[in-house]
Amino acid sequence: xxxxxxxxxxxxxxxxxxxxxxxxxxxGGGLGAVGAGVGIGIIFGKVIESVTRQPEMRDEITxxxxxxxxxxxxxxFYGLVAGLIAFFL
Amino acid sequence: MKTRTKVLLxxxxxxxxxxxxxxxxxxxxxxxxxxxxxxxxxxxxxxxxLPGPFDINxxxxxxxxxxxxxxxxxxxxxxxxEARPNRVQTAVEALYSLMRDNITAGNMESAMARKWFPFIGxxxxxxxxxxxxxxxxxxxxxxxxxxxxxAEIPGFxxxxxxxxxxxxxxxxxxxxxxxxxEGIRTKGVGGYLKSLIxxxxxxxxxxxxxxxxxxxxxxxxxxxxxxLFANILAGHLIILFMSGGLAVLLGIEAxxxxxxxxxxxxxxxEVGLVATLQAFIFATLTAIYLGGAVAEHH
Lengths: 89, 298
What we know:
The complex is a heterodimer of chains A (about 90) and B (about 300). Chain A has about 90 residues and is an all-alpha fold. Chain A has helices at about 1-55, 60-89. Chain A has one domain (about 25-90): F1F0 ATP synthase subunit C (F1FO ATP Synthase, Up-down Bundle), CATH 1.20.20.10. The relative contact order of chain A is 0.16. Helix content of chain B is about 70%, strand content about 5%. The interface of A and B includes residues 73, 77, 78 and 88 of A.
């Protein structure tokens, strides 16, 4: 009885380690995507606002827009890489 | 109905129909595939054994290709410049003015910009070519071979040198050393360290900000290298999974057909936007760091 219980517990612990890795990947990818998604949305929203206000500034704003987009998008990948490291290592 | 609508409807209809046919033939059952190792795409096998740390592997080959492409194409185009430019020359001239005016001259003074433009331009072109050749399938997969007319040919695979952390890290280190040295050369060691503190901050707050800024200088190394590396790595991973890797891994045939359009869209997104954007960001941040290191005010 006890032996079966213990094997079950150990199996659960092993599954738990795997589950922890899967959770790490999910949280790293998922929550990272939430933050970066909000940030990218704000950037493009502000770009639309600024271009409608001052259409003559369009070229300058486009350059800044891509800079901000790439910097924000990179934050998602920091989370994803941390998740991948937890999953594979 | 317009022709375009008809064509679109036809494609969507064909897609759905073939999806049903595939599900009807193969079913939608999962059979995990233990043999396929998706991380092998990024595994570096030694091809040529050389003494010391000079072994040649896949990443080194990609670096060579990128370096040769950068120099040869640019020199070739520069040597056959004409007064009436053809299409390629116009494109390269647009690229040149982007590098010179927007990236370099937009972020530092003109004397500085003249001095550092070759460095930043070479950095931009090298990263750009490295990223772009990473999306061309090349016969590099020595584990999975196939025979064509009797010859054993390695399987075609995509890989980019920038999808390996070492390459962006080395580039970031070069940038890190050059902007710090340039800052110290113009202001002296004391002046450079003092310029880390923004004007108007005094007392205990200044010490705190100094430590923060000093550490953030080192964080630039991480952010600069990991940004490029992670973008390219994630792009390659997602292309791998969407264009069949997931279906092979789980053994569901119909899933491959479902994810294939996503794979195509993501491939276009990566080639068209991310490859260029990451090279642009790397070069722009280099210019901003260089300009900031010699600027009078922080």
